[in-house]
Amino acid sequence: MSEDIASNAQRLLRTQLLAAVIAGLLFLAQGQWAALSALYGAFISLSTTLLLSRGMHHAERLAGEDLKKMQAILYGGAAVRFVLVIALFLLGLAVLALDPLATAAGFGLAHAAHLINLRALKPGQHR
């Protein structure tokens, strides 16, 4: 199972990095600031993917066969990722004054890459 998680995570990160580059290039026509904003939004999605991968590895290692413990670890990780997304959006929009549309679009495009990657997995492989 660990090898499946690692290979899926690597493929997902490559897909999301490609989506980040595409988002940056799409917004480059509106200027460098918009392109950087789109890249920042994609970075938010990438950071949650990295945390998810780390959390799944951690849950598998600590919980072993105890599904309730694994579930608790994964739910805790989901809460952390939720707070992280809000905090990073606040940082980007309120503190750094990034372009809101470009930031949201970068996040959305990278997150869509995540969802597309999940759909490409075989049934039972997305654990």
Description:
86% of the residues lie in helices and 0% in strands. With 127 residues, it is mainly α. α1 (2-28) runs antiparallel to α2 and α2 (32-63) runs antiparallel to α3 (67-95). The longest helix has 32 residues, at 32-63. It is flat, with a radius of gyration of 16 Å. The mean pLDDT is 88.
Topology:
Blueprint: H1 2-28, H2 32-63, H3 67-95, H4 100-120
Key attributes of the depicted protein:
127 residues, mainly alpha
Helical amount among residues, as a percent range? over 70%
Q: What is the end-to-end distance?
A: 8 Å
Along the chain, the helix and strand elements come as HHHH
Strand proportion, as a percent range, falls in: under 5%
Nearest-angstrom radius of gyration?
A: 16 Å
Task: State the domain count.
Answer: 1
Major sheet characteristics: none
Helical segment count: 4
User: How does the helix and strand content classify structurally?
Assistant: mainly alpha
> Care to count the β-strands?
0
State the low-pLDDT regions, or none.
none
